[in-house]
């Protein structure tokens, strides 16, 4: 359909959770000197202006990153995440927010590389503009899952894949499971991070049950909610399902999530970290 535009949602509570988990995984990969790859299957535009008409129309960032921006009690583990955002804003005023490709690329070292895929005809030119001339970045205007299949296993044999489809169509939940099934056969040791929105809880069950049926191990689920599950309120929560997570990720998120919920949704929110499939 290609109707989804992330500009309306940039910097919201779901972005905050997604990019925190993303940054923690990348920082864990950097603990070893050997190079790694960051692969983004649904990249979007790269960065977003929170003052443009799309962001201001919804104002979702005001209940997301804007709640963290000026705080002085941010957990130490969030420093890389916050530092990337600060690098995009010349003043104390929050205006620009990174998409996942910008977050990932900024955290890479000289020996690492990024593979970015985006199919939307409006967002891909923006992605090109953001990273044109960057030798550590390869960009493709292709189906994200098709490019992922063609790119595995990576030459580095280390790295992470961020899977963040728009979920415009119900079959996309099964598409995620199928993509993981095919990818694990090619690259069993990679870290795969799947973002999901909670609109209808049964759709998330399709992913977790599907992953269980694949027979893979080490599947961690991380979720932050701002409202109880509902059939009427739209997205009430979001989460990350991480396959082969770094060993510190579970403990980091167990520490971060209570703080994050207090900041973003103290009265109505929820959070959890649990193993869908343990090691």
Total count of domains: 1
Neighbour order of strands in the largest sheet: 5-4-1-6-7-9-8-10
Proportion of beta-strand residues: 15-25%
| CATH class call | Alpha Beta
Structure annotation, total helices: 10
CATH architecture field:
3-Layer(aba) Sandwich
What name does the CATH topology carry? Rossmann fold
**End-to-end C-alpha gap:** 37 Å
| CATH homologous group name | Vaccinia Virus protein VP39
What is the overall shape?
A: globular
Rounded average pLDDT = 93
Main β-sheet, in a few words? 8 strands, mixed
Number of strands: 10
SSE-based structural type: alpha/beta
Helix content class? 25-40%
Rg, Å, rounded: 17 Å
Strand and helix order: HEEHHHEHEHEHEHEHEEHE
What are the low-pLDDT stretches, counting only 5+ consecutive residues below 50? 1-5
Summary tags:
single chain, 279 residues, alpha/beta, Rossmann fold, eight-stranded mixed sheet, two-stranded antiparallel sheet, 10 helices, globular
Fold and architecture overview:
With 279 residues, the chain is α/β, with parallel strands linked by helices. The protein has one domain: Rossmann fold. Helices cover 39% and strands 19% of the residues. The protein has ten helices and ten strands. The chain has helices at residues 13-29, 53-58, 65-68, 79-88, 100-107, 123-131, 144-151, 171-186, 201-214, 249-264; strands spanning 37-40, 47-49, 96-98, 113-117, 137-140, 159-163, 191-198, 219-225, 237-243, 270-277. The strands form two sheets. An eight-stranded mixed sheet has the order 5-4-1-6-7-9-8-10, with helices on both faces. Strands 2-3 form a two-stranded antiparallel ribbon. Residues 1-5 have low confidence and may be disordered. The active site is at 164 (proton acceptor). InterPro entries: RlmJ, SAM-dependent_MTases_sf. It catalyses: adenosine(2030) in 23S rRNA + S-adenosyl-L-methionine = N(6)-methyladenosine(2030) in 23S rRNA + S-adenosyl-L-homocysteine + H(+).
């Amino acid at each position: 359909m290609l109707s989804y535009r992330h500009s309306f949602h940039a910097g919201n509570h779901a972005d905050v959770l997604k990019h925190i988990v993303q940054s923690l995984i990348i920082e864990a990969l950097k603990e070893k000197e050997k190079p790694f790859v960051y692969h983004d299957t649904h990249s979007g535009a790269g960065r977003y202006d929170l003052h443009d008409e799309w962001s201001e129309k919804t104002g979702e960032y005001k209940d997301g990153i804007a709640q963290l921006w000026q705080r002085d009690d941010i957990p130490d583990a969030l420093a890389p995440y916050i530092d990337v955002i600060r690098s995009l804003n010349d003043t104390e005023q929050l205006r620009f927010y990174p998409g996942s490709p910008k977050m990932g690329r900024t955290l890479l070292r000289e020996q690492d590389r990024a593979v970015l895929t985006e199919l939307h005809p409006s967002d891909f030119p923006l992605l090109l503009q953001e990273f044109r001339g960057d030798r550590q970045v390869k960009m493709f205007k292709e189906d994200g899952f098709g490019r992922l299949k063609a790119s595995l296993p990576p030459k580095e044999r280390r790295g992470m894949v961020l899977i963040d489809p728009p979920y415009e169509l119900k079959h996309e939940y099964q598409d995620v499971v199928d993509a993981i099934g095919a990818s694990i056969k090619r690259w069993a040791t990679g870290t795969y991070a799947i973002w999901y929105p909670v609109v209808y809880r049964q759709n998330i069950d399709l992913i977790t049950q599907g992953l269980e049926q694949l027979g893979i191990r080490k599947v961690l689920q991380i979720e932050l909610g701002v409202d109880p599950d509902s059939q009427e309120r739209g997205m009430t929560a979001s989460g990350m399902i991480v396959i082969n997570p770094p060993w510190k990720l579970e403990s980091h998120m167990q520490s971060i999530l209570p703080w994050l919920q207090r900041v973003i949704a103290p009265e109505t929110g929820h959070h959890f970290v649990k193993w869908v499939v343990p090691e």
